[in-house]
């Protein structure tokens, strides 16, 4: 990459970024070079290509190196600040972590579509995107969780069942609790409430994604109580959601996670 995380053009047509530096997606505003020659579309592991004169010049002039996560079978959750990191620690399963200049990359095994700004300070980089290479990181790499995939949804899936009220809230199974302290769960619920009440648009989707994130982290160890779930439902209803929609979203999240 050149300065500013802008990809190099790797042919004469795209030299010095004359095409705008955006891979050919056959849409207005993108490069129309006949060859797919830069950014994620040019990612390769072919040693003959990597050692070609054009690539050698690019390596020499590059300000940074990037890779195509989706091409490597990976998804990167790009956390741009401490608040985003704190959210991930309470909402997502631990995985391979790489420090960045502003935050962290959480890397999961699996691919999905890439989406920017899925929540404040959080981008998803996988298919048709590139991420800056900053080293191997640390920690065991986990499988791509449903809580990350759900961030790319624009609306929850159709309801599997739709009772008007939640007469028997789901409290989880009996797996070993992974929470570091009792305050860990309370902090996660408080952050979930804030996420719901802070939604300015796409409230339906935000409620579903939040329920999914909470269940993904806390839904299998039996720690969720009626009080916790009532807090989430109350937060959703302050944004105009009906009790029925809350129950539907909770049921859909459980189904998605296989709970």
Order of helices and strands: HHEEHEEEEEHHHHH
Major sheet attributes: 5 strands, antiparallel
Radius of gyration: 21 Å
Sum up the overall morphology in one term: elongated
Coarse structural class: alpha+beta
Strand ordering within the main sheet: 3-4-2-6-5
The overall average pLDDT, rounded, is 77
Share in helix? 25-40%
Distance between the termini: 43 Å
Query: Into which percentage range does the β-strand content fall?
Result: 5-15%
Count of strand segments: 7
Low-confidence spans: 24-29, 157-171
Would you write up a description of this structure?
The chain is elongated. With 259 residues, the protein is α+β, with helices and mostly antiparallel strands. Strands 3-4-2-6-5 form a 5-stranded antiparallel sheet. Helices cover 34% and strands 11% of the residues.
Annotate the secondary structure layout.
Layout: H1 47-50, H2 53-61, E1 66-67, E2 74-79, H3 82-91, E3 96-99, E4 104-109, E5 115-119, E6 122-125, E7 131-132, H4 146-149, H5 182-197, H6 203-218, H7 226-238, H8 243-257
Antiparallel strand pairs: 1-7, 2-4, 2-6, 3-4, 5-6
Helix pairs in contact: 5-6, 5-7, 6-8
């Amino acid at each position: 990459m050149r300065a500013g995380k802008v990809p190099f053009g790797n042919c004469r047509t795209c030299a010095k970024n004359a095409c705008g530096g955006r891979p050919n997606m056959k849409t207005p505003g993108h490069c129309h070079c006949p060859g797919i020659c830069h950014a994620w579309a040019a990612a390769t592991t072919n040693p003959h290509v990597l050692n070609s004169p054009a690539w050698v010049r690019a390596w020499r002039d590059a300000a940074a190196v990037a890779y195509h996560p989706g091409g490597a079978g990976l998804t990167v959750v790009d956390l741009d600040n401490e608040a985003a990191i704190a959210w991930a620690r309470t909402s997502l399963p631990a995985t391979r972590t790489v420090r960045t200049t502003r935050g962290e990359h959480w890397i999961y095994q699996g691919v999905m579509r890439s989406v920017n700004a899925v929540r404040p300070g959080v981008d998803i980089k996988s298919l048709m995107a590139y991420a800056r290479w900053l080293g191997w990181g640390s920690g065991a790499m986990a499988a791509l969780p449903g809580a990350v995939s759900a961030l790319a949804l624009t609306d929850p899936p159709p309801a599997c069942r739709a009772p008007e009220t939640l007469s028997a809230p789901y409290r989880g199974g009996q797996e070993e609790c992974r929470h570091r302290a009792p305050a860990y769960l309370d902090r996660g619920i408080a952050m979930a409430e804030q996420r719901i009440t802070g939604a300015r648009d796409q409230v339906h989707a935000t409620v579903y994604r939040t329920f999914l994130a909470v269940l993904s982290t806390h839904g299998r160890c039996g720690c969720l109580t009626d009080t916790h779930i009532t807090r989430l439902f109350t937060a959703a209803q302050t944004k105009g959601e009906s009790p029925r929609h809350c129950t539907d979203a909770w049921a859909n999240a459980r189904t998605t996670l296989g709970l």
